[in-house]
Amino acid sequence: MVMELALFSLMLTVMAISVAAQAKPGCQRQCGNVNIPYPFGTGGAECYIDGSFLITCNTTSDPPKAFLATTDIQVLHISVDGYLRIRYPIAYDCYDSLGRSRNFNAGFRLEKFFISHTRNMFTALGCDTYAYIEGFVGRTYSTGCMSFCYGADEVVNGSCSGIGCCQIQIPKGVTDYELSFDSYWSHSKVLSFNPCSYGFAVENGVYNFSLSHFLDPDFGKKKFPIILDWTIGNQSCREARMDPQNYACKENSACIDPENGSGYLCKCLHGFQGNPYLSYGCQKI
Ligand SMILES: *[C@@H]1O[C@H](CO)[C@@H](O)[C@H](O)[C@H]1NC(C)=O
Ligand SMILES: *[C@@H]1O[C@H](CO)[C@@H](O)[C@H](O)[C@H]1NC(C)=O
Ligand SMILES: *[C@@H]1O[C@H](CO)[C@@H](O)[C@H](O)[C@H]1NC(C)=O
Ligand SMILES: *[C@@H]1O[C@H](CO)[C@@H](O)[C@H](O)[C@H]1NC(C)=O
Ligand SMILES: CC(=O)N[C@H]1CO[C@H](CO)[C@@H](O)[C@@H]1O
């Protein structure tokens, strides 16, 4: 009985390893704590499907850190279900008592990845704050949100309804954006408790607003997680199947056209699990 249990747990371990190890055979499976499933890969060109899916592993830090292609965007998690989690710096606009401003506009530009419109929100903080968002969804669009308050006691912790913090949804299909700020009074009326405006996209449920963030001198250095959606290529499933040489969905998998946008995803058939982008990567459960 004990031996059976031991054998069973060994089998589970082996299964867990084979499910987690979803890199192309012969390619590095992990960078630090991040698993790198194909179509992503690090190392030689045979390890990833095309240049957008390259992960650069920087081993200078301990543990090593994964970055998207040749950018300085850190990758925290990669899912074969068509998304990845990255860490991205926030934008700020800070004022001193002379009304001078010091700002950092965290622009965002990625051709191949979409900022998930269901799993992130644009968020702006401040009490004299108008955050503009100019983005690209195949054409340029502009939106924004504003937040005004006149005393620290008005600010509502834990809520982003426009008093100290405002949030808006991200439109479908955004591949890049630029955040910028405006204020009515250069924060002069709220300088004692709110010298800065901040703006960022952030994964739902991660950020909890608090008045204490206004006076945190390190808040502008923070990075927040963002969920990006990815797809293979720029063809629909129907087009991709007509090009079997480059068709990414392997045995026991199906092709999926995402709701919007170009490219396609692969998914293991019902009763199978694993990595649909690898030959026989989908295995019977
Ligand atoms: C790795 O990270 C270190 C420290 O963050 C940086 O100085 C170095 O340039 C990076 N190396 C590469 C190859 O990107
Ligand atoms: C957010 O923080 C407040 C305290 O500022 C706390 O009461 C609340 O439970 C927190 N909410 C979440 C979702 O963490
Ligand atoms: C909000 O949180 C800050 C810091 O935790 C606290 O000082 C302040 O009193 C809170 N405000 C309200 C209205 O609860
Ligand atoms: C699709 O991708 C190919 C190869 O990357 C490129 O040459 C082509 O212009 C793209 N087509 C569209 C409609 O974006
Ligand atoms: C990014 C992208 O492909 N967006 C498209 C989403 O769908 C609408 C309507 O079909 C298109 O107009 C967008 O270009």
Structure write-up:
By secondary structure, the protein is mainly beta. The protein is built from 2 helices and 21 strands. It starts with a helix and ends with a strand. 8% of the residues lie in helices and 38% in strands. Residues 1-5 and 7-18 have low confidence and may be disordered. The strands form 6 sheets. It has a 6-stranded antiparallel beta sheet with strand order 3-4-5-6-17-10, with no helix packed on it. A 5-stranded antiparallel beta sheet has the order 8-7-16-11-14, with no helix packed on it. It has 2 domains: 22-79, no CATH class; 86-229, no CATH class. The chain is elongated. The longest helix is centred in the N-terminal third of the chain and has 19 residues, at 2-20.
